[in-house]
Structures are given as C-alpha cells and as structure tokens.
Design brief:
This protein has about 260 residues and is α+β, with helices and mostly antiparallel strands. It is built from nine helices and 15 strands. The chain has one domain: Ribonuclease Z/Hydroxyacylglutathione hydrolase-like (Metallo-beta-lactamase, Chain A). Helix content is about 30%, strand content about 25%. Strand 6, helix 1 and strand 7 form a beta-alpha-beta unit. Helix 7 packs antiparallel against helix 8 and helix 7 runs antiparallel to helix 9. The radius of gyration is 18 Å and the shape is globular.
Length: about 260
C-alpha cells in the first residue's frame, strides 16, 4: 500500500511505500514526484501506487500526462519498475545499467540514470551525485549501498535510496533523548572497492557532496523515513551529513589499512 503523498517543499512530494523482507518485516520504500521548471513532472524511482495515491498523483499531473519521465535511481530497486511503467506508459523510462539488463523488454531510454549526460539533461532542476570508491553494482546482491542521489534545487530536497539513511526512533526513545540520526548505509564496508585509493575516492566524494549540498533542507530516504525541515528539531541536514561521515571513520580507516 502507498502512504500519503507528503508535500515536502516547493514542487516536491514524497510517497512512502511498503517493502517487506521475507514477507514479514516492513522496512518501507519510497518514490518522489518533482515538478520541473517547465511545469512538467518526473517520478524519482518506481512504486506501484494504490488507487487513492494514483488518483492524487493524476490530479496533480493532468491524469499523469504531465509526468514526462520516470528516473529509476537505485540499481537494486526493481520490484515496481514494470507496474510503474504500466501506470504511466507515456513517461520516458530511465534506469541504471542493471535495470536495462533485468528488464530488457521495457522501452528504456538510451541514457542511463548514472550517466553524466542524463544529469546534464535535468541540470536546471536537479543536481545528481554517484558515489565514488564503492561498487555501483556489487557482485553481492545483498549490498545495496550505491545509488544515484538527487537534489531537487527548488525545494532543496535530497532523494536518496539506501546510500544515505535517516532513522527516526520510536517516541519513547526520542523522549529519552536518543532522537534521530542520519547515517551511511551499513553495507559500506562491503561496498568499498578492494583497491588502493578507494577510501580516498569515497572520502573526496562524500566531502564534495556535503559541501556542494550544504544548503539542503530535506532528506527523503528509502527504507527509513523522510527528514523534513519543518519537523527537524535537531541539527541541519548539512551537520548531520558531517556527523555521518565521521561515524564511518573507523570503517574507512580499516579498509585503507588493508588495501591502501
């Protein structure tokens, strides 16, 4: 079932979804709807909308006709690709190389979502970032660290699948002062490339992201929750990202010691 269509900021809406591990533990997932400067829309990631959510999205987008593209940003988020294409068949379908391989029968656009040319195509509305120093598609299918991160410029919202996570603890723990936190996905250690210089490449990428996206106000993260500026009682998104990089320091040091 789809969750409510959450108005995050100017021209940006986040839709929370359900994703159950082993059919039992619901860790959630997401898709986002973003309005472009042209007045049209794009969907970030695929999710099968229930009737109520689909109706709401169609009301916002002239029956879905104004959704010009679906941008699938995580190579391992593939469950809803087919259904989303069926719900919005006129939208140009973009995906990673892995999407192309797994669903070769779908009408994929030639550009892939990890391609700089695709990022340039939507540069008026988004900044995109692909992590460096880590496998974009790991041989271990349980390692889902990497994705294409997107910053919607008007709403200053980061849309991230797995790479960045936001954990909002249950109310009793928040009342005890434990609050919430932003972190990198726990599979980082397994995602780092087994070569000299991988850690430095990752650190450089993360520091560039933190600096260039320092004015981000919202973070929509898959499997966890959305951190909205209007609800944020703690540090800014920028300061949370700084702390997230600090928290993986030991992981990075250990990998660098082993591989250089």
């Amino acid at each position: 079932m789809s969750g409510p269509v959450i108005h995050v900021g100017e021209g940006f809406w986040n839709i929370r979804g359900s994703y159950k591990i082993a059919g039992v533990i619901d860790v959630g997932t997401q898709a986002s709807l973003a309005r472009l400067a042209s007045g049209k829309f794009v969907l970030l990631d695929s999710y099968t909308f229930d009737r109520e959510t689909l109706q709401k999205v169609e009301e916002m987008t002239n029956g879905g006709k104004q959704i010009e593209a679906v941008l699938n940003l995580h190579p391992f988020h593939t469950v809803h690709v087919q259904k989303t294409h069926e719900q919005f068949p006129a939208a140009v379908l973009y995906g990673t190389a892995r999407h192309h391989e797994r669903f070769s029968d779908l009408p994929w656009a030639e550009l892939r979502t990890e391609d700089p040319a695709l990022h340039e195509l939507y540069a008026d509305d988004f900044d995109f970032s692909v992590p460096r120093g880590v496998d974009f598609v790991s041989d271990n299918e349980n390692v889902h660290f990497s994705s294409v991160l997107a910053l919607h410029k008007v709403s200053m919202t980061i849309h991230s699948d797995d790479t960045l996570m936001y954990m909002r603890l249950p109310l009793p723990l928040r009342l005890a002062g434990l609050g919430d936190s932003v972190s990198f996905h726990p599979t980082l250690a397994k995602a780092l490339e087994r070569r000299a210089g991988a850690v430095q490449d990752f650190r450089d990428w993360a520091e560039e992201l933190i600096h260039s996206w320092q004015h981000a106000e919202n973070l929509c993260a898959a499997h966890t929750a959305a951190l909205l500026d209007r609800d944020n009682k703690g540090d800014s998104v920028h300061d949370r990202l700084v702390k997230a990089l600090q928290k993986v320091g030991k992981t990075l040091d250990a990998h660098e010691k082993k591989f250089g």
